[in-house]
Specification:
The complex is a heterodimer. By secondary structure, chain A is an alpha+beta fold. Chain A contains 15 helices and 8 strands. In chain B, strands 2-3-5 form a 3-stranded antiparallel sheet. A two-stranded antiparallel ribbon of chain B has the order 1-4. Chain B has a domain of about 80 residues: Alpha-Beta Plaits, CATH 3.30.70. Classes of the chains: A alpha+beta, B alpha+beta.
Chain lengths: ~375, ~140
Amino acid sequence: MGELLTVNMGPQHPSTHGVLYLELKMDGEIVVDCKPHLGYLHRSIEKIAENRTYTQFIPFTDRLDYLASMNNNLGYCLAVEKLLNIAVPDRAQYLRVIIAELNRAVSHLVAIGTFAQDLGAYATPLFYAFRDREKIVDLFDSICGGRLTYNYMRIGGVSADIPARTEQIIKDFIAYERKQLIEYNELLTYNVIFLARSKNIGILSKEVARSYSVTGPMLRASGIKWDIRKEEPYSMYDKFDFDVPVGANGDSWDRFKVRLDEISQSLRIVEQAIGGIPEGNPVSKVNRVFRGTGEAYVRTENPRGELGFYLVAEGGFNPTRCKIRSPSFSNLGALSELVKGLNISDAVCVLGSMDIVMGEIDR
Amino acid sequence: MMIRLFTGFYSILKGFKVTFKNMLKKPVTLNYPIVKKPMTDRFRGMVDLVPEKCVICYQCIKICPTAALELEHKVLEDNKTKTITKFVFNGELCCFCGFCGEICPTDAIFLNKMYEVSYFAHKDLLTIDLMRKDKYKHVDGGESS
């Protein structure tokens, strides 16, 4: 082994997915050691929660995993509802599931688009993914008025009922996206160059995945069938029929494939839910006042893994403690294990396949 | 080796088929500064106010998660009517959550359709006087109440 060279990758680097700084020890082209440095996006969101009322904290959850704001909203609202024993109308539950699953699908679209770009497929797959994502972002815009930070869910319901024609738009999107998924397979999944770049790169074994408490598509790609929606169904997920895609090797390609398969499963859930939305008023007014005592922990399946909200309340209008378990943070822990012995270009591939979002790592 | 070359060439052709098909489709993007997309009914832009409708209930001030609004009032000499003396919006603190518009009992405060929110001076963004009619007139196309 020659002299080790330290390479600083990030925090301003196109392929680090946000402000992540990796300190790489290199032996020539080979990565010997990797140390992620965090904290460039720290906004002390957990502390902010202690100074805001339960409702006021909802916009801040948008800023955790900003590619899946709806899922964060859902996780937080479920935690508060469990803490304060608030009933949610059936219509709101259905809307939440539909919206959360659509958000999962488009979040995975961004993941596969950026992953392909990290591998050198410059712009084309990313633009295709964003083109499809735009349809759902437009829909969310008409439902809640936001295009990135949606702030749609409320404690005990949602902020507004869906406008007319939403169901038709969603049905059209499902039909459109199913066709697009075939196109993605042709363009990327079984492309020989893509396979050569991602197959057998960054293999995450079951044992390592368990020991780092990796969750989400990353864990499932390693062959462990674990999905909170199945194991511990929240909201209305026990009413819908869907499969949990599992990978075989746990390499970068498996992580990509699991995400692609999850999109079609999400569309399946939405298709089942859209037909059976019950009548009723899903709206929960923003001026409702909440207070109570106790503690609650709710974990939900976010696009990136297991998102947990732990809330402690001591009778005030705001929680006295809010702990957020973010999936990307745990998933990133496994990075240094994965990249050892790889080329630096493959380290970028592994990082892209992990699909981390710095907003929820630093919080 | 030959097989790998052949399969590689074949999969590139397959990829080109997809990109060629997409090349013939209509563009999905807009020629932005010239063509502008209309905003949806519920779009949340800048905070705007219809001063005549405001009943000075301070609900928007209380619900704002980032304390971006500042309201002061005085009671007139007849000890009944209240008038606003100061209603300032801090565009830098605002997180565009729309709580103020949702909670307002008279729909006096609302989020307009303005999405181009640049200012020429930083301090202008910090103290947007909501009582003024021309508060958003500086931006081309910026509409006000």
